[in-house]
Amino acid sequence: MDFFSRGYTALRGDRGQPQSADETIEKLTDCLETATLLEDRRAGVLSLKGLEVGNKSLPGLIKVLHNDYSDVDMTKAILETITILCTVHNQHDKDDKGFKFTDYFLEEENNVTILLDILEEFDFYVRYNAIKLLTALLNNRNKRIQECILTNPMGISRLVEMLDDKRDIIRNESLLLLIGLTSNNTEIQKIVTFQATFEKLLTIIEEQEGISGDIIVQDSLTLMHNLLRYNVSDQVYFRETSCIQQIPGLLGYVGDSDADHVPYSFEDWPPQKVANTVLVLQLIRILTEPDSSSTPINQKVMVQSGILLPIVQLGLCSNVPSIVRTEALYSIAYVLASNTENQDIFAKVVVASPPALTEEGQIDTSIEPALPRPAIVSLIAVAVDEDYGVSYSYSSRAAATYTVYSYLNGNPDAQLALVSTLNLPPEDNANTHYKDKPHSAGSLLLAIIEDWERSLNDPYKVWFACDILSHIIRNNEQAKKIAGNIVFGDVANGEDPVPLMHHIIAQLLISTKNSSTNPRIPIGYLCLLCIWLFDSPTSVSLFLAESTHVQFLIQEMQSSTNDAIVQAIYSGRLDQFHSSLARLRDSSAVINAPQYLQISAEDESISVTTHSLPSLLLDSVFVDLFKSTYEHIHKSLKKKPNSFTARSKKQATPASSISEEVVQSYKLQIDEQATQIKTLEDKLEKLEALLQSIVSQKGTLSVVNNDNKQLKEQVSQLETELTSIKSFIHYEEDEDEDEE
Whose CA is closest to 26, among 40, 38, 39, 10? Predict the structure, then answer.
């Protein structure tokens, strides 16, 4: 009764007269400021809670919060009231009152400190409302509240302790708050990490049944991402506390780890499981980010922990949705990139071929199952979309292509192993009864590359096949020579042998002449040829062995019907070279070339909705080659042809190292050799005359022929030396003129 009477007294006016809302708020605020009894302050707080309070009451509420936070009921009411005041209804409205009240509350850092101290109270509503207020402040002024929290590191410990709260709502709200706090703040990330946060999160995920769990698993993984992304010290802690070893268990593996191949898996994939799985796969990529100092050791620990089996199964032999398959393939790529040991282990992995499916998505039992095959063959099959009865998304195919690149990168032995498989299997082999006829990695590529018409409805077949072959031979002269020795045509049946390179050029020619050809087909062939010919004289000689090739390139470069990018890659004439290359340099295909050959979800969605193709036109590897050589080519075109000869001679014999005396000695040597040549030529003429006169004398003829042969050799040798020295003298004189 005392409580209600005090509340009534606070609300009534003098002599019981009614008063306005502003007058009531003012009186209640005065009560907060001046009341000496706890009951009076509690009555004032509870009365204000139901009113629209403003600037006058907020200072009083904050004061009472500091003084009486041990009173559970009053603290709960104050927290609810301040949360209402600081809630922003329109984040785009800078004048929203919620921002103003938030700024006032955050002026004093100890206001945030008191909220963190309040978390020690076990009462559900006090903890819940304290976390909700902190979340509201964080949403409004992220950086400021991060600064305030950093002044009280023990407060972060209290927040992390909330993850151990068995009440789901408290734990879940704490997770969301920590996700916001750790976003883009390395210092807070480190403090949170060293509170055994990873262990707590992994325990939560395990309790929620891993990737099959609810949204709390998603939130836990999101917080892990925040703590680990671009944070090497946190990654070291994650690894040294044996957390990496728990990642394979999160994904699961439907099969026997001791089996001779990875089996095909059929599972249910509700949306939440998809979201959780994608986050685990992205966690693998965060820990193996290219060029990070911690990546090599993280890659090693992951493979030792058995990460390959689950990600290979998800990427190559499972009925997973496209987004999961794509992320799994990129995870494989990141684990393999620039790591020879992991690449060698992957080379030995054998996987089940996907079963043929009916239109209803069931296994077609009428078709004999295909044999297991190397994982690298499955990767290429996904890239070129050549699995019987199974169709893959463009993003998955791009991911598979990038994974092949990662497998080959820095591994010349793997390149040679794949290039050696570039042959088509005979038609009468023992596997012809399979509808999904087994292929080697190379034969699968050749089957696509040698016949561009198979790509009329899917130009990315040729594009991805050419891109993979370019990775197989890139920067590997031995691999280029092996590929150059591959020929088409049965010589035994009278067919002329055609080198693979010439066959590719023929396919390029035919596809270019067809008006219905998508530009991606000739772009694929052209990029492959550029990679093949770059820095490879032997390959250039093979290309030039057929004179019509250069004529064809010039003709196509001049053709106005060609796509601008195709025309630029064809470019060969000086008068069009500059503009074509500049157009290619400034094109969106070069500027927007994805670093890891990724097709964005938005691009994929648009292509599916509009039945169009993704915007992917050029591989970043080709773009890097183009950019690295562009300036050199551009400058070279400005020079005269004879300057290249002079420069090469200058590099061979620097002018600065040759004195005038040496030059004069060479001139004297020339005069002497010229005299010797004249003498020898005279002697040769006499011997030839003698030869004609004594043809009948056999012995003499033999001697003369001997002398004649030796003299000719001497003359030839001297003439060669004379030419070389004259060229050198001429070069030195040109250098002197240039200096003048």
Answer: 10
Cα-only R_g, the chain = 39
For the chain, the first-to-last Cα distance in angstroms comes to 111
Tell me the three-class secondary structure of 218-251, residue by residue.
HHHHHHHHHHHCCCHHHHHHHHHCCCHHHHHHHH
Query: Which neighbouring-strand residues pair with 351?
Result: 262, 373
Q: Tell me, rounded to whole angstroms, the distance of Cα 494 from its chain centroid.
A: 48
Q: How far is CA 729 from the centre of its chain?
A: 54
Cα angle for residues 331, 335, 336 (degrees, 5° grid)? 115
Low-confidence ranges of the chain (pLDDT < 70): 1-56, 360-361, 424-438, 491-492, 557-562, 564, 567-576, 636-667, 669-670, 673, 680-681, 683-684, 686-740
d(CA 463, CA 527): 9
Burial of 459 (0-12, 13-18, 19+ CB in 10 A): buried
Show the beta-strand stretches assigned E in 284-376.
Answer: 350-351, 373-374
CB atoms within 10 A of CB 192: 22
Tokens 């921002």 found at: 99
The closest alpha carbon to 612, from 503, 458, 419, 505, belongs to: 458
pLDDT tens, 698-708? 455 455 566 66
Domain end among 151, 167, 191 = 151
Q: How many CB atoms lie within 10 A of CB 19?
A: 14
Nearest to 453 by CA among 511, 501, 498: 511
Domain end marker among 151, 181, 215: 151
Helices and strands in the chain: count of H runs, count of E runs = 39, 4
Question: Which positions ≥6 away from 633 have C-beta within 8 Å?
Answer: 581
Q: Spell out the residues 6+ positions from residue 462 whose beta carbon is closer than 8 angstroms to its own.
A: 448, 449, 452, 454, 455, 520, 521, 524, 525
Q: What is the DSSP string of 379-408?
A: HHHHHTT-STT----HHHHHHHHHHHHHHH
Nearest to 467 by CA among 383, 533, 394, 538: 383
CATH number, domain of 112, equals: 1.25.10.10
pLDDT of residue 581: 79
CB-based contact 538:476 (threshold 8 Å): no
Cα separation of 229 and 286, whole Å?
A: 6
Q: In degrees, to the nearest 5, what angle opens at C-alpha 488 toward C-alphas 482 and 492?
A: 115
Chain position carrying tokens 């010290």: 233
Distance CA 533, CA 126 (A): 72
What secondary structure letter does DSSP report for 265? B
Domain that holds residue 118: 1-151
Tell me if residue 206 falls in helix, strand or coil.
helix
Let me know if residue 728 belongs to a domain.
Answer: yes
Judge whether 677 lies within some domain: yes
C-alpha 403/C-alpha 399 separation (Å) is 6
Q: How many domains does the chain have?
A: 2
In this structure, are strands 487-488 and 373-374 parallel, antiparallel, or unpaired?
Answer: unpaired
Is 111 a domain residue?
Answer: yes
Long-range CB pairs of 142-145 (<8 Å, 24+ gap) are 142/180, 142/183, 144/106, 145/106, 145/112, 145/181
The answer to whether the CB of 737 falls within 8 A of the CB of 655 is no
Residue 4 lies in a domain: yes
